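Fill in residues.
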């Protein structure tokens, strides 16, 4: 037993964050005890670097552990995204929590289960096959004896390695995973008891605010803080271009900031009308600050040969605007120094990444920085960086007291990074029988995710061109997959219309991927694609694709008033396949939420800017979907228990925009190739 259990009481994980960092940055800590601890009260404490941002992974990961340890979900408690307590994790993004972390916890918990069975068999001197596990106890069937997990381990850390060969429960035998388990902490959330970063306080805490320049890329040329420093309790911090205040409360901090007199200079910058020409003509330098990803090229066959064998060719350009993430909870952080040790509470998708940012900024060891991520009020890819954490830490160090920073909505819309804008050129060739013979696809700036076509085209080239960006840009839900699906599925519709072929039949004719065929069939069947009723001003659209190991097909019905340009979504049906489903209700929530978010980006969300200044800097100037914009949504789930579970946080968003654009064309005969389709709330027909 000495090789399996540590004599150290409790679950402690080493202060470095749980061991070595593998090549791809995924957690790779061998000890069971680094991942879970069997507590004396019969519960299990689980450690993961993943962050909960409303996607409900606290529940789904608890299901994974409960499944293998034969426990109720209520007995599993997750410690998440605390760099002092959990193994290193690259971050919560890319729909990787389910395929990577859930799989890891299944294996760890299964290894713990096997160890517990071995311990019980040794204690009772019985054959292991006579033992069963249920409700946190090991049972000996023939004698009726039972013993709790914690009693078997004596509360000690499980030092045995978990290993990749742990006998996990296959999906077709799941009894806890695979079920619609209620959301962990759901009641506390709806009653307002749940605590987020903005709700937290620390003894002696001050409130911080940062002076922002009037435009991007501005340099501070003069500063007078005399009046601000005269306000009782106010501390002013000036470090280069950084100017901030710390005060006893938010109103005082605001008053102090307004009392500062500053002058800034900035060179002329491009404005929104010039954006797409700029992206085409400004390739990024190898070390360019605005790079987003690297160049990617995929080629197959010969485009020249494909075009020579075609009856028709088609060229079109599609554009995508910058988008704000617009999370319900703006960026926030609390920073507290204790000598040379820094602790920060903040909402971020990358706690270990932010730990590294803080250590680098203050030239200190990462071991002296602790980042704790309370549950976060949404991120959508927008909280990878530690902006607020760095600002709070600067002010706290100068003040000698904890400091909390909460960004205003104007700061969130202006100074956070945006979803990349993009220009996409597509050139295709097709035979009269509907077979595509050539496909050329060029994406400028928005990214390479899902750029390669899933259709069986013998001659193709897809290329992502890295360009400079006039605005700060970064990750967004599904990254560039939304842009690339919009361009590809719009173009597929254009080809189908050119040939006079039904858009669904045209897609299926050019498909060999059985999973993508299956979601198209499921969506069309539930939507009633073949029996849809034609009427003036009413249109139907379909689109689909694959990303992050998941498959999606979306059908949309719209009503368009040509006189006013008003477009109304009447119905959305989306079929989705992400392998074995972990939590059906949770998956439906993800799909429905992605569709609602997709409505905004498809119809009216965009960042407006002029000469380095964001104009759409508040919700009154940046429209997000409202209740009246949301139609009935039907999510059709394809539960593939024969396949590993894939992530579902991103892929459901990619089909809405092209399906909607295709439906608008069906209703009006007008092809819209720019997202958003109705930037002013009305279609320009």
């Amino acid at each position: 037993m000495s090789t399996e259990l540590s004599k150290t009481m409790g679950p402690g994980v080493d202060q470095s964050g749980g061991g070595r960092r593998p090549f791809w940055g995924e957690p790779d800590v061998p000890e069971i005890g680094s991942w879970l601890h069997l507590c004396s009260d019969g519960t299990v404490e689980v450690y993961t670097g993943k962050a909960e941002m409303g996607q409900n992974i606290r529940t789904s990961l608890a299901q994974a552990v409960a499944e293998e340890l034969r426990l109720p979900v209520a007995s599993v408690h997750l410690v998440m995204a605390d760099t002092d307590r959990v193994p290193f994790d690259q971050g919560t993004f890319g729909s990787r929590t389910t395929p990577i972390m859930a799989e890891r916890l299944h294996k760890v918990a299964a290894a713990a289960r096997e160890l517990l069975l071995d311990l019980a068999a040794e204690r009772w001197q019985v054959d292991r096959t006579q033992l069963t596990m249920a409700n946190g106890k090991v049972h000996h069937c023939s004698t009726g004896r039972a013993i709790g997990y914690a009693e078997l381990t004596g509360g000690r850390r499980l030092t045995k390695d978990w290993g990749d060969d742990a006998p996990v429960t296959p999906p077709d035998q799941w009894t806890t995973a695979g079920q619609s388990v209620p959301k962990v902490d759901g009641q506390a959330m709806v009653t307002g008891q749940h605590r987020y970063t903005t709700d937290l306080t620390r003894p002696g805490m001050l409130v911080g605010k940062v002076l922002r320049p009037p435009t991007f890329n501005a340099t501070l040329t003069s500063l007078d803080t005399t009046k601000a420093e005269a306000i009782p309790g106010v501390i002013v911090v000036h470090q280069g271009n950084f100017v901030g205040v710390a005060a006893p409360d938010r109103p005082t901090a605001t008053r102090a900031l307004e009392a500062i007199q500053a002058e800034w200079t900035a060179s002329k910058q491009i404005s929104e009308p010039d954006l797409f020409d700029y992206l085409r003509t400004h390739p990024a330098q190898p070390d360019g600050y605005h790079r987003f990803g690297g160049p990617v090229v995929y080629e197959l066959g010969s485009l020249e040969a494909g075009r020579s064998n075609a009856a028709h060719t088609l060229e079109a350009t599609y554009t995508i605007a910058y988008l704000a993430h617009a999370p319900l909870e703006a960026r926030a952080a609390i920073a507290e120094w204790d000598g040379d040790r820094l602790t920060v509470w903040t909402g971020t998708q990358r706690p270990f990444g932010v730990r590294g940012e803080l250590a680098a900024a203050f030239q200190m060891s990462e071991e002296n920085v602790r980042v704790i991520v309370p549950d976060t009020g949404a991120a959508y890819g927008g909280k990878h960086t530690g902006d607020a954490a760095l600002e709070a830490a600067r002010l706290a160090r100068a003040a000698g007291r904890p400091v909390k920073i909460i960004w205003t909505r104007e700061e969130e819309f202006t100074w956070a990074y945006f979803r990349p804008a993009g220009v996409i050129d597509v050139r295709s060739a097709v035979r009269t029988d509907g077979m595509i013979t050539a496909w050329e696809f060029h994406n400028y700036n928005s990214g390479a995710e899902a750029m390669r076509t899933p259709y069986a085209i013998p001659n193709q080239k897809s290329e992502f061109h890295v360009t400079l960006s006039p605005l700060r840009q970064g990750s967004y839900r599904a990254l560039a997959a939304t842009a690339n699906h919009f361009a590809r599925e719009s173009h597929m519709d254009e080809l189908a219309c050119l040939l006079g072929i039904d858009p669904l039949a045209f897609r299926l004719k050019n498909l060999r991927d059985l999973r993508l065929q299956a979601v198209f069939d499921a969506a069309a069947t539930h939507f009633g694609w073949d029996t849809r009723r034609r009427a003036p001003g009413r249109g139907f659209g379909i689109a689909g694709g694959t990303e992050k190991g998941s498959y999606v097909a979306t059908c949309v019905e719209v009503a368009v008033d040509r006189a006013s340009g008003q477009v109304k979504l009447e119905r959305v049906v989306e079929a989705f396949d992400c392998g074995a489903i972990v939590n059906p209700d949770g998956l439906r929530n993800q799909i429905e939420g992605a569709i609602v978010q997709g409505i905004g980006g498809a119809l009216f969300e965009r960042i407006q800017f002029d000469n380095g200044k964001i104009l759409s800097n508040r919700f009154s100037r940046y429209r997000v979907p409202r209740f009246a914009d949301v139609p009935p949504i039907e999510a059709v789930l394809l539960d593939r228990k024969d396949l590993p579970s894939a992530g579902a946080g991103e892929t459901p968003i990619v089909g809405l925009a092209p399906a909607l654009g295709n439906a608008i064309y069906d209703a009006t005969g007008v092809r819209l190739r720019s997202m958003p389709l109705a930037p002013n709330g009305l279609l320009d027909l």
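The first helix runs from residue 57 to 69.
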